[in-house]
Amino acid sequence: MERTFIKPENENSFMQVFKYYKCNKPKPSLDNVLSLENKIFGKNQIGLYSAPTLIEDLRTELLGLTNVKEWKAYTLLRHPGLILIKNPFTSLGQRYWIRKCLEQYSKKPNKTNIDTEMVLNDWWKECFKSGHCNSKLQNKLRWTTLGYHHNWDTKVYTEDNKSLFPEDLAELCDCISKYLGYQNFRAEAAIVNYYHIGSTLSAHTDHSEVNLEAPLFSFSFGQSAIFLIGGPDKNFEPSAIMLNSGDVAVMSKEARLSYHAVPKIVSALSQPWSNGESDKEICDNMANLKYITDRQQLILDMNRNIDNKEWNLFKNYIQESRINMNVRQVLHEHQKSLLDVKFFKSYFNCFLFILNSISNPSILTKNISFVFQS
Ligand SMILES: O=C(O)CCC(=O)C(=O)O
Fold first, then answer.
1. pLDDT digits (tens, 9 = 90+) for 21-47
2. Domain for residue 122, yes or no?
3. Residue 294 domain-assigned?
4. Which atom of ligand 1 is nearest to the CA of 195?
5. pTM of the predicted protein model
6. Atom of ligand 1 nearest to the CA of 249
7. Top mutation candidate among 85, 152, 193 for ligand 1, by most atoms within 8 Å of CB
8. 206 among the known binding-site residues?
9. Does residue 194 sit within a domain?
10. CA dihedral sign, ordered 359, 360, 361, 364
11. In terms of residue numbers, what domain contains 49?
12. What CATH number should be reported for the domain holding residue 135?
C-alpha cells in the first residue's frame, strides 16, 4: 500500500514521516519499513557490509555474541556511514545484556530520569521490595546515563559529571568496533533508553561529543522499534528501519550526525532471548580481555541466566518493553580528559557552533526531549 502524506505548510519531511508512523488510527503501513529479519527492504537499496578483516575474536563467546564469521552486516545507499548488524547475540547473551541494563546500569552512581523525583540507589531492587512487582515504579524508568553523563539541559559533558564506564559494555563495543575496522574506539558515555508500548523519541542529532568522527553504537533488545534515520537536516526524508532484539545500528561518517528518531515501539515477532540455545553454559576460553578485570564474574553472570526462575522477572519486563544502549566515544584518540588544553580547539569549535546556533536556531538540534506517552 502506498503511504500518503498530507503536508501542513510548516512541516518538514522528518516530522511528516514521524507522525505517519506514530499514528495508531489509522495504523501505518509497514511496507516501506526495512526489516533485516524478514528480508524486506522496501524502497531502500541495501548493500552487504564486508568487514575489513575477519579475524576470529575469542571474546565474542564470553560476551554473549556468536562467532564473527556468522555476522551479517548491511549498509544503506541513502545513508552512507550507517551500518546495521543483524542480531549477533546468542540467546544467553541477550539475557545477559537485558539483565545488566535493568539490574546494574540503573544503579547509583549512574544517573536516571527518576533522580529528580526521588532518591533511589537501586531502582530494580526497589521495584520488588514488597515481594511483588511495583509496576508503577518499574514503568517510571526512561533512561540512565553511564560514564560521562549526558546533561539534558546544557547538552555539554563535563569532567565533574561522570562515573566509571561499565567494563563489560566497553569490552562489547571494543569487540564490535574491531570487527568494523575501528582500532581505537573507546566507549566513554552511554544513554540506556527504556521504552514501553506507546513511547516515542523525537527527532534529534547527537553532537555533544568532542569527537564526532568516532562511530556511535546503538544496541536494541526486547520489543521492536521503528527507527527513522534522515540526513543533516529535517528536510531530508527519513528511511524507516525495524530494529529487532539484538540488532546493532552503527552511526558513522555522514550518518553520525544524521537526524534520527523512534516514532513507534511494536510487538516483537520473535523472542530471541528465549530460544533453545539459552541453556548452553559458556566456559572460560582464555580470551584476552581489554577492559574486563574479573572474567570469572562475567562467566558467572552470563550463566546464571540459564536458570529460567532467575531470568523470569527480567523476562516479564522485556515482554512489554524495549531497551536501547546508545554508546559514544566523547574524547579524541589521544585526549585524556575534557580539560586537556591541547584540545582547546574542539571547545572553541563548539563555542562557535553555539554562537552559530543562536543566530540560526534551526541548527540547534539536540532537542532530545522525550515525548513519551504511556
Ligand atoms: O532507541 C533508539 O534506537 C535510539 C536512541 C537514541 O537515538 C539516543 O539515545 O540518542
1. 999 999 999 999 999 876 666 666 899
2. yes
3. yes
4. 1
5. 0.90
6. 3
7. 193
8. yes
9. yes
10. negative
11. 13-363
12. 2.60.120.590
